[in-house]
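Obj: model holo form, ligand = PBG.
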Amino acid sequence: MPSSRESQSDPRSQAARKTEQRASQSLPGPAFSSHRPRRLRRTAGIRRMVRETQLTVEHLIYPLFVEEGISEARPIDSMPGVSRLSPAIAAEKAAHAHELGIPSVLLFGIPEHKDARGSESFAADGVVQQAVRSIKERVPEIVVITDVCLCEYSDHGHCGVLNRDREPHPNASLPNDYLLNDETLAVLQQIALSHAGAGAEIVAPSGMIDGMVGAIRSTLDQHGFTECSIMSYAIKYASAFYGPFREAADGAPRFGDRRTHQMDPGNAREAVREAELDRREGADFLMVKPALAYLDVLYRIKTEIPELPLVAYNVSGEFSMLRAAGDAGYLDAAAAQWEVLTAIRRAGADLIITYAAPEIAEMLLTHG
Ligand code: PBG
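Output (holo structure tokens):
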């Protein structure tokens, strides 16, 4: 800080003080009128020209739930407007999404039979494998992404093989319900292979198992699926915002929780480490999930690892809370949803997985 004597004798600071005085006393002075940010907000046309963040249909990924053994869509109570579909209905939905310009769908499967090792997840005629084929037959242009995880397929609802089911016997140094890492990798490899074999262009491992990207990459390559991409759920938090999804996909853990593999909500530096590991293992896309409560993490990952496409998952809880507030008349759910997606893009996401994809695509078609 210069002393008051110095600043009084400095002609530049005197001039600056005068300008300040003018601005505050005799409006409008030149300093004030040369700074009117409102000029750029005056009309819809100008606002459109200077909007820094674009949300377009290209940015949307539409998740679909396919259930085995059903022939009609089954509405999901916890997610207003979302249903479980048969593979044939999923193909219709994908065709509709394609007509709206949505480039991609993400598939989750709900099998008829579950077991300890989730073996339906890699069955050649499993429900997701059937859905991939039906969608590819109906709309070959749409990009099909598949969720690679065990939680919807295992009878205990966990994302992998538990210590109690370890063969030939449990690892005595770990609790019985501990989710085993390397045993799970072997199953994830089988799932990814069967999805790629059915025609998925992108597989998306979501279990937060260490080494999942490298393990899947090497199996895919060995079997000739060198062009199948991996969208890694690199940064997935142990979040209460998955609540509605667990009903939707029938994937709630029957006991315990997912805190030994999903990330702690308090951590952001660790997110960079997770992303860096997945990049090195060969991930083609990185994902942050959930999105809305983790915008700082999206920003950080985009800044630290800008070269990979960054995906944000606007998860079930984020979707359903807006719908519920809209249904109660508290706010305009569609406008709030648009605002949320724009904020997620502004934070750094290139792509956004959202259950509202068709509604938002229609909104963008009509309002631009
Ligand atoms: C796990 C998986 C989950 C979600 C996507 N993949 C649930 C979980 O980890 O418990 C949540 C998606 C959402 O809430 O929309 N396969």
